[in-house]
């Protein structure tokens, strides 16, 4: 059982040429792949192990798990990897298909192997007809396999063989021809019109793979009860085919801003260089988005369809089919808490806040640990007072401070006070992130858009809420950090500082803390959200590195602009030594610092503060968002923008995207097979003719 020499169209690229990106994956190692193969191979012949069709499709890929599965469909899918077409899959075939799944055009190559029934690198008329006749679409709306379209590709005698490159065009044209043939069948008199119900019937059956739930539910409403003309029908199907292109036109019109509404004229102007998009398609787009908006789940009463005057990116996402590559996700857990947003109860919302709080705690602890040495240097620089303590200046600059701490206190001295910091920073960052998300959710419109003033308000609320945790941990941390400056044999511990201060003493300087934290968050979170959106790719996806960069960039203006408040807070919370100036409050500290040290004193430690806050929040935010991706829970609310996949799959079996045994290219196996359905409409029956418990002849679809 070997791979025929004629299969030169199956590439086996080396791992170095197959980097792991949202589009294609890195090859798996041979030894690991063989281990996985042997785990599922149930048949031994001539001292070689083989997978059967059921081993590959049902046990390994996890598809067609029902007892009454369709045996023909299972054999067809297994035939994609079974290039020798003997009903068994050898390890060499298993490995070759893994390599194919890593190629950039894996979706088309997978579809090609589905139709290459003889395994000779070509598709004959018999091969094509055999597969098409087994699809659900053909059973509902039969396609003429003896018509002019077929003869143009396979010749009048249907003896011409189609190679891979030609097959890709055939597959592209096939569904458009099928749609036109369906229109003609509904218009036997040749009037050029069909009824709204016939229009719905054709679109649901022929273009099922391009329909989102919102579009499917509004196919009749969008016609407003009028008959559908052939030009309108063609424009509608073309619009569904070109939604990704429409998104690019929108981004061109808004210069990459996904929340800016655009008018029909603006979109037409941006689309004028693209001949694929016609004014009629733009008219339908605005009409369709208006209908979907009017009859959305958040409306209790349906209204007459109305054309929107402006649309934004979220409108396009609601009617655009999900791209199959977005299912190639890497999640450690995936939970669906509610079936739909309408099921969000108060209890579910509390669970959502608890979930965010937990992830925020972990993210905050990670961020604080990474940058704590910089924070210690910043605190000591800010506490250094010129002329108030026998004229002594301990540190010339931040780098000098860093070196002296290492010299006199050792490397662990850089982490003095870390434990109380972690005890406080976990709930502090958690409540800040949770409150910001909560207020943003409440102030966002139905499409998830939020005005800038609301972003600033949400950030300010987050900053205010954190002070209940921030102030106590800051005052304890600061006193521990400056304790190392005093040559004393007594080691100061966090608990002794807490006992000395008491409950009310822990909130000394709270006004200054509010003065710092409220504007910091009001600046930081809106800046982060907009920077993140600017750094997203053309599909709106944010790579972890762009999340880290956005978090770090947003921290620069936020941290630097509130440094004066941070200096005042530090002076109020540190115990003044003999001879040093004391302060009674925010205003008193402001006047005395200005009089004794000048305006430059308010900006002490700015560099250290920026170098601490900027990377800290970058690490915190990237950890927070990646944790939400890895431990995904759908509460029916909003998810972080830039994540991989939020829309429900309308594909093969929208159950998980793989197991731990799906390594290398096989991480994409289930999503790609689903893509063969969702992109090309090649739905195969899941139930019926295969198992003993099946009902003969049943072809119930998925």
Automatic annotation (TrEMBL):
It holds the Pfam family Mito_carr. GO terms for molecular function: calcium ion binding; L-aspartate transmembrane transporter activity; L-glutamate transmembrane transporter activity. The keyword Glycoprotein does not apply. SUPFAM superfamilies: EF-hand (SSF47473), Mitochondrial carrier (SSF103506). Solcar repeats lie at residues 351-442, 450-534, 542-630. It is a multi-pass membrane protein. Gene3D superfamilies: EF-hand, Mitochondrial carrier domain. Its main location: mitochondrion. It is found in: Mitochondrion inner membrane. SMART domains: EFh (SM00054). GO terms for biological process: malate-aspartate shuttle. Keywords: Calcium, Membrane, Metal-binding, Mitochondrion, Mitochondrion inner membrane, Repeat, Transmembrane, Transmembrane helix, Transport. Residues 103-138, 174-209 form the EF-hand domain. GO terms for cellular component: mitochondrial inner membrane. Belongs to the mitochondrial carrier (TC 2.A.29) family. Homodimer (via N-terminus). This is Calcium-binding mitochondrial carrier protein Aralar1. It comes from Drosophila madeirensis (Fruit fly).
